[in-house]
Design a protein that fits this description.
The chain is of the alpha/beta class. It has 14 helices and 19 strands. The chain has helices spanning 12-21, 35-41, 79-87, 182-193, 202-217, 230-243, 261-272, 283-290, 296-317, 330-341, 373-382, 387-390, 410-429, 482-495; strands at 2-6, 26-30, 45-48, 74-77, 91-107, 120-121, 127-141, 147-151, 159-162, 167-170, 221-225, 247-253, 276-281, 321-325, 363-365, 438-452, 455-468, 476-477, 499-504. The strands form 3 sheets. A 10-stranded mixed beta sheet has the order 2-1-3-4-10-9-8-5-7-6, with helices on both faces. It has a 5-stranded parallel beta sheet with strand order 13-12-11-14-15, with helices on both faces. The structure holds xanthosine-5'-monophosphate. Homodimer. This is GMP synthase [glutamine-hydrolyzing].
């Protein structure tokens, strides 16, 4: 297993994902992880991430010196290279030319890390690599024992190595996909230099999780709030495989779900997989609570609190439940750890079935805590969940409640459901669904005049939203083909009563958010 020490780069999670993709288990910890914890982790190799600081300023982060004394391979990336250089007796200076973006690196063929990895061969026998650079500082003199393994015109020491101690440093970022050979470099490090096998595979992850879950919960019953989203679905499938009938799922239909969603969840889990699912039809209660409320944050709070209330009532009807399962995944864990230590900048806090009442006193079982989203999806497929469920766009907890602007009415939810269904159906039909990260319709409570047949119509407006994004923190509106938008618009206006006009949202994030409320 590989230990990644995080110096605060925006790419650190990517390093972990690349190592996992190479089939090797890794964990990400803050750069100041203490010596005892490092020893206990017993890494086969250590990666030092990039970071926003400059090593020659005072009080900038350093790796614990144990990192260089354990006798395991170390790979420093960007800031990680620079701190390794400074800590081992070399020097780092501010570069006169900062480098951001694509660069071409000349790699010297003799290093174990880069041997035979190249995008182009150059005339003088060096390999050329197309890489992604993002740095202001550069290594000026090598620490004792190191040699140069890669260079650029602006950074003559862009890659360094001490083959004896198996210490390597790269100024560029192998973890980003713009570095075309990046995955090969990471695989070279973890497989050949750290000697880690490809053991982190979906079937091994499932087998391990099943053992852990069984050991953790024994014969106890486990309760799960099933939403139909990817994470809770995979938790349900995994727990069902591990403990069968001991798992009880509660599925709350709040009346703000997409068309046919409730039936689909029941069909997949209850009928197809034989999971115990209690379906609670709480539409009337939710809509009643939302009556007269138009402020988005207030709507979110009401929906969240009502969910907890309904869930609590159901849970109390079931005897002797000791555990609550949650779909917490590794990025949530990293984010809240970062939030606690104040290191990572936290943009959004995550809650699953957050804030359950104290008196429930359930212990938590979180079988996806170590997994990234793509791993969750892969094990979902391996567990037999349908691909449409596993590769579904995210859907917010408050559901259509934040896609019907202002006050929520039942008939508007019905209108929105039908329009949204057409949009998604056409995206799938045109093979565009997987090319966008999230797409949905929004109900606008304004009326506009239209003509249907010979009649004048004065009806509502539907906005369509489709975005492309990696992390949902920033997003670009999807440039869907005009013909496609034309088709969707015609279908919605013709088939959905109460809609006279369709508009397409071309706002990025920032300045917009993805949802309208
Ligand atoms: P925004 O609108 O903030 O959305 O750009 C970013 C991502 O988060 C989802 N989202 C939510 N998810 N509860 C959730 O579970 C919420 O209240 C909520 N608000 C937004 C949104 O769908 C998008 O994927």
């Amino acid at each position: 297993r590989i230990l990644i020490l995080d110096f605060g780069s925006q790419y650190t999670q990517l390093i972990a994902r690349r190592v996992r993709e190479a089939g090797v288990y890794c964990e990400l910890h803050p750069y100041d992880m203490n010596a005892t914890a490092i020893r206990e982790f017993a890494p086969s190799g250590i990666i030092l991430s990039g970071g926003p600081q400059s090593v020659h300023e005072t009080d900038t982060p350093r790796a614990n010196s144990l990192v260089f004394e354990l006798g395991v391979p170390v790979l420093g990336i960007c800031y990680g290279l620079q701190t390794m250089t400074a800590q081992l007796g070399g020097t780092v200076i501010s570069a006169t030319h900062r480098e951001y973006g694509y660069a071409q690196v000349r790699a010297r063929g003799h290093s174990r890390l880069l041997r035979n990895i190249e995008d182009h061969a150059s005339v003088d026998g060096f390999g050329l690599l197309d890489v992604w650079m993002s740095h202001g500082d550069r290594v000026e003199t090598l620490p004792p024992g190191f040699i140069v393994i890669a260079e650029t015109p602006n950074a003559p020491l862009a890659g360094i190595a001490d083959e004896m101690r198996r210490f390597y440093g790269l100024q560029f970022h192998p973890e980003v996909t713009h570095t075309r050979q990046g995955q090969r470099i990471i695989e070279r490090f973890v497989h050949e230099i750290c000697c880690c096998g490809r053991l982190w595979t979906p079937d091994n992850i499932i087998a391990d999780s099943i053992n852990t879950i069984r050991a953790q919960v024994g014969n106890d019953k486990v309760l799960l709030g099933l939403s139909g989203g990817v994470d809770s679905s995979v938790v349900a499938a995994l727990l069902h495989r591990a403990i069968g009938e001991q798992l009880i799922c509660v599925f709350v239909d709040n009346g703000l779900l997409r068309l046919g969603e409730g039936d689909q969840v029941m069909a997949t889990f209850a009928r197809h997989m034989g999971v115990t699912v209690i379906r609670v039809d709480a539409e009337a209660l939710f809509l009643d609570r939302l009556q007269g409320v138009s402020d988005p944050e207030q709507k979110r709070k009401i929906i969240g609190n009502t969910f907890i209330e309904v869930f609590d009532i159901e849970a109390n009807k079931i005897n002797a439940v000791n555990w609550l399962a949650q779909g917490t995944i590794y990025p949530d864990v990293i984010e809240s750890a970062g939030a606690k230590s104040g290191k990572a900048k936290v943009i959004k806090s995550h809650h699953n079935v957050g804030g359950l009442p104290e008196h429930m006193r359930l212990k938590l079982v979180e079988p996806l805590r170590e997994l990234f989203k793509d791993e969750v999806r892969r094990i979902g497929i391996e567990l037999g969940l349908p691909a449409e469920m596993v590769y579904r766009h995210p859907f917010p907890g408050p559901g259509l409640g934040v896609r019907i602007l202002g006050e929520v009415h039942r008939e508007d939810a019905e209108t929105l459901r039908r329009a949204d269904y057409i949009f998604i159906e056409e995206l799938r039909r045109a093979d565009l669904y997987d090319q966008v990260s999230q797409a949905f319709a929004v109900f606008l409570p304004v009326r506009s005049v239209g003509v249907v047949g010979d009649n004048r119509q004065y009806a509502h407006v539907i906005a369509l939203r489709a975005v492309e994004t990696i992390d949902f923190m920033t997003a670009r509106w999807a440039h869907l083909p005009y013909e496609f938008l034309d088709l969707v618009c015609r279908r919605i206006v013709n088939e959905v009563p109460g809609v006279s006009r369709v508009v397409y949202d071309i706002t990025g994030k920032p300045p917009g958010t993805i949802e309208w409320e």
